[in-house]
Amino acid sequence: MPFAFKDNPHNEWCHVGSYLDAFFTSMAAMTLTGITTYPSGLADTLSLAGQIIVLVLVQTGGLGIVTILTFLFSIFRRRLQFKDRLMISQAISFNNFGEIARYVRRLIAIAAVCEVIGTGLGVPLFLQVFPDNPAKAIYYSVFYSISSFNNAGFDLFTGTSSFISGLQASGGVYISTSNFLYYYSTIYMAVLSLLGGISFLVIIDIVVEHKPPRRWSSFTKICLTMTIGMILVMSWLIFFTEGFKANNPMNFYQALMQIINCRTAGFSVYPQEQISMPGRMICCVMMLVGGSPLSTAGGIKITTAFIIVLTIISYFRGKKLSAFRRRYSYDLVAKSMSLVFLVVVFLIAAFIFLTIFGTKKVEGYEMSEIIKKEKVSFYMYEVFSCFGNVGFYTGLEPFLSVGSRLVLCLLMLVGHLGPMAFFQLFENNLDKTTNTHYSFVEEDFLIG
Q1: 299, 415 Cβ separation under 8 angstroms
Q2: More confident residue, 127 or 74
């Protein structure tokens, strides 16, 4: 709408960009991807009303429409009917019918508490950036708290290559890599994004129900172990590829923040266009995996990666599929392998279409020389970033053609809904084994 744009005194329609730019930004907000095709960025393009609309979409996408409706439904009606519980349980992947309403209330409460605490922690930071405008500092605290917890990664300091340089450009003279506020700001957003992407079930297990580690569910143990393990391993890998460059080498702290934000947060403390090809490939792996199920994160989910890794290890050890004193069915293996295969095929197809549709010229703006030289590798980066709902801003987005933007919109939607849920739109029942009344003779053959 015209009121959503800055510098639009005559309320002109399509004052900046086009309807497609607005659609792309809305899709990025609802799917928690956090990128925009506006050349001057979100803050310099949208008015306060437009930014609030984006924030509402982010919050709705983070909690989920079904979750919000269920919460309201449970407030105004005493009891949920069985058919309502069945529909809700399928929508939010929660199998305990009797605990649906309680679980949803807990989910809303956890999100609210984390975002309120995040807002409070953000106020001291943004008061340093806007010392003469406390109201603006509070608004930025609210915005970044919601954007960080929901792993949206929308940045109000736009037109810059990273969050830190954006702070400096906006008058944040106290923010530099050599003082406390640099570490405070980056850790503040990293912790919020980790909380949002670790799974609400994990938070309930550890914080709400106060269970000791020995009583944690295997799901909680898997999420924590895989999250910590992948962050540490990938941080060292990207440090080795980027930490010894001649120009602007990445230190280990920046590598750690880069990998944490690769999970689906999308905030960058290092210019993304300066990351080498091996470094971008490491980031793509992290973006593909994403966070945990029942969280605000995207990707194939860390539990899927766990099952695949466990299957490979168990096969070479000649043992059954087990971990944390639990045995796992081979149906999980089949689902995980199918999911990864479908995602890889989908990403390859999206990459091919992106190279076909390519880019366009934008009047008044020039594409950087790095992107011009390595445009194909940046296409790959955009594909993984949008599917994982990460949304790293590389500088390529404003130059994407109409076809390329629509491809990325589809990627964001599939990544947010989950590939299996998306393909169920075309197939009502992916599991027909229960309806099959015969079986064939089992036979092995040579592979590899």
Answers
A1: yes
A2: 127
439: confidence class by pLDDT, cuts 50, 70, 90: confident
185-196 tens-digit pLDDT = 888 888 998 988
Give the CA distances from residue 445 to residues 149, 335, 341, 442, in Å, rounded to whole numbers and listed in that order.
49, 22, 21, 10
What pLDDT sits at residue 282? 92
User: Tens digit of pLDDT for each residue in 127-142?
Assistant: 887 888 889 889 989 9
Beta bridge mates, 323: 326
With contact defined as beta carbons under 8 Å apart, do 334 and 304 qualify? no
Using alpha carbons, list the distances in angstroms from residue 169 to 148, 157, 164, 253, 423: 21, 8, 9, 22, 44
Asked if 422 contacts 414 with a C-beta cutoff of 8 angstroms, the reply is yes
Average confidence (pLDDT) over 26-33: 89
Q: How many CA atoms lie within 13 Å of 397's alpha carbon, on the beta-carbon side? A: 31
Q: What is the model's pLDDT at position 422?
A: 58
User: What's this model's pTM, rounded to 2 decimal places?
Assistant: 0.85
User: Per-residue pLDDT averaged across 191-219, rounded?
Assistant: 86
Confidence label for 163 from pLDDT (cuts 50, 70 and 90):
low
Secondary structure in 3-state letters for the chain: CHHHECCCCCCCCCCCCCHHHHHHHHHHHHCCCCCCCCCCCHHHHECHHHHHHHHHHHHHHHHCHHHHHHHHHHHHCCCCCHHHHHHHHHHHCCCCHHHHHHHHHHHHHHHHHHHHHHHHHHHHHHHHHCCCCHHHHHHHHHHHHHHHHCCCCCCCCCCCCCHHHHHHHCCCCCCCCCCHHHHHHHHHHHHHHHHHHCCHHHHHHHHHCCCCHHHCCHHHHHHHHHHHHHHHHHHHHHHHHHCCCCCCCCCHHHHHHHHHHHCCCCCCCCCHHHCCHHHHHHHHHHHHHCCCCCCCCCCCCHHHHHHHHHHHHHHHHCCCCEECCEECCHHHHHHHHHHHHHHHHHHHHHHHHHHHHCECCCCCCCCCHHHHHCHHHHHHHHHHHHHCCCCCCCCCHHHECHHHHHHHHHHHHHHHHCHHHHHCCCCCCCCCHHHCCCCCCCCCCCCC
**pLDDT at position 173:** 46
